[in-house]
Amino acid sequence: MKKQAVIGLMSGTSMDGLDIAYCEFSCIRKRWHFHIRQSETIVYKKEIRERLLQAGNGSALDLANDHHWYGRWQGEQVKKFIVRHKLKPTLISAHGHTLFHQPSKKISWQLGSGASLAAACGIDAVTDFRTTDIALGGQGAPLVPIGDEILFPEYDFCLNLGGFANISYREKKRRLAFDICPVNIVLNELSLLRGKQYDRGGDMARAGVISRVLLDSLNKGSYFRKKGPRSLGKEWVTANVLPLIYRSKASPEDMLSTYTEHISIQIAKHLTGRKPKILLTGGGAWNDFLIERIVHHSGFRIKLPDNTLIAFKEALVFAFLGLLRYRNEINTCRSVTGASRDSIGGGIYSGV
Ligand SMILES: Nc1ncnc2c1ncn2[C@@H]1O[C@H](COP(=O)(O)OP(=O)(O)O)[C@@H](O)[C@H]1O
Ligand SMILES: [Mg+2]
Fold it and tell me: Is the CB of 191 under 6 A from ligand 1?
């Protein structure tokens, strides 16, 4: 098979920026291989971040407008990236920016019109990966595990620390995956109390003291008793987690310290086995204090992959899911989403 060049775009709930990864894929004797050839994060300028934060709070007309705006903006970024690095992708695959994720209401909605994206860069684009699965009774999430299964079979656990922590692993020949708990979406919000976008290296958390009362109430959350397919959204954090933290009246450092401990305990519960091989990715991998606490609670050594994979694994996997969609192959796995069947998710918009 000829190498396929696909650009993956990811904008996570941490709101740090748009990740762009130019990836090459080839399938040799039924085994997929990948290479991230070029990658960049376009850090959101204040006005873009604010528009994304506001999107979804206005009228239906505002939403339609923002959908077009963000789709075109992504397409323009792709165009510049391609020129800058002299690239020739056949396809753009964009997750979009999640505004609503409420699977029980059959809603998962990502900002960024595929039509506007494809038109702005003149290349075919795949977007809207979650709705087919939701229509089939699934959570529409997580979608990355099929990428874990196919692209990273040598790992016992794939753990990503973005806005939320998600994990995926094999059990009894099936891939299981779910969101464990909110991570950077909460840590970033607490860091803002000290005027910082995020807690670099976890230094503020390290300087704090754990509040046992708050830690206990966080760990008692009913979500942590759930089993099977489950996923979390921003709405849940706003309604359940932040009020609990703010009610504690602790200092920002103590809140960060306590929340970091909560994350580490929840994650460590799911890391099991004898010297498991753990692929740890997402911006949280650079939070040294958080990693120290996860190592402490799990008792396992964790070797971080290279910085490109830490930052762009999700963009890589979305590039791959888009390629599968383009090839009309299954890219959504019912064993992790809970849908009635596996499916081919995503809509294709022609750019040529
Ligand atoms: N050096 C660092 N120390 C601590 N946290 C970091 C560091 N670098 C990045 N992060 C965290 O990672 C987040 C970005 O992670 P990312 O994987 O892009 O998440 P998402 O997929 O939700 O966008 C940042 O918002 C920040 O919270
Ligand atoms: Mg990000």
Answer: no
